[in-house]
Design goal:
Aspartate Aminotransferase, domain 1; seven-stranded mixed beta sheet; three-stranded antiparallel beta sheet; 12 strands; binds pyridoxal-5'-phosphate
Length: 371
Amino acid sequence: MPFDAFRYAHAHRGEVAWLSQNTNHLVPPEVVRGALEEAIRERRYEGYPYAPGDPELLERVARDLGLPGQTPFLTAGGTESLYMITRALLAPGDEVIASDPSYLIIHRFVELSGARTRNLDIYAPPYRLSAERVAEAIGPKTRMILLIDPLNPLGSGYPREEVRAIAEVAHDHHLTLLNDVTYRDFSDHASLAAQFAPEETITVWSVSKNCGLAGLRIGGFSARPELVKQLARFNTNDLGVNILAQVAANAALRTKSEWFGAVKRQTRENGARVKATVERVPGASLPVYPSQANMMVVDISRLGLSPEALQEELLLRHGVFVRAGNYLSPTHGAKFVRVSFSNPPADLDRFERAFPDAIAALAPRAPAPTA
Ligand SMILES: Cc1ncc(COP(=O)(O)O)c(C=O)c1O
């Protein structure tokens, strides 16, 4: 049986530095603990939630996004929103303009609808889409543009003018613009496409990464009300989204402005440490720096190593869990690992020691790391 890195990492979760899923381990635990403890004391889990979602939470989400006229909808993570949107709006033969690398789970959902993605290669500067390339790629079957901003896995963020230009392309061609903004809070210049193309844009948001709630599985989308109705036909959470997740999301969003600044500062400091570590290994490099999200791609293609071998070496010998690139790019996945870093500094200490050691162990004839 092939080695199951996730099974191993979960079994050893107390000892593993989890740098593999862009999760956030920096949110002060008291932010949600009190609210969750109270909900558990009240045994709120015994009953179904109010099916459309806690109105206070929905109001907070709307305020957080700041998109007047757009209605938020709760789902079990942004993932379920992505599934609903692709199922509701795509038919066999349709095309979606997307990128490579990308968050490929969305591409898989597109394919489940019988549609296909047209992946524009962005593994070269500026490591993101441009309005010009998107416009050129539009054909008679194009129905949707996928704009993930900031982009998993590269960490590239779109300047406001580029978001506007892509939104204008969607508007001019009557295409749905799927704007996945899961990592928006980590960016220095996040702008929502819905500001520029409110009719065409569906904004997919999440509290998994900004609020450190990935395990609770709550997120959603936001769009103009008639479009929300159309998408809601594919809602599988007819009885509502997990009540404890709603309670936690509400508590986190209520206080986010008080603690997110510190999360972002630490994330950026950690990113600088990843960069310094990578620079000590000749042949390894970062295509994008600084990341506008909380992860980066580390290119190891010049070292002649497989990312899977590096992932396994780091995990088994050093307890450091990074992600091999094949999960994120059909074309370039063999060139990189992805490292995420919204983690306590001690996890970065471990990465700093482990990364050069693991490379040296796998490629004994590669040049020695510089001190
Ligand atoms: C771009 C992107 N969208 C959506 C998700 C999924 O988010 P959620 O945990 O809200 O389902 C991820 C998770 O890594 C992601 O990277």
